Amino acid sequence: MHPQKHGLPSPEKQEELERELDAQGVKKMCLDVCSEFRGVYVCETRCVMSESDKIHACRDACQASFSASCDRAYPTSAPGAAEDYESCMEYMQRTCMDTCKPYT
Question: Is the pLDDT confidence value at 97 over 70?
Answer without folding.
Answer: yes
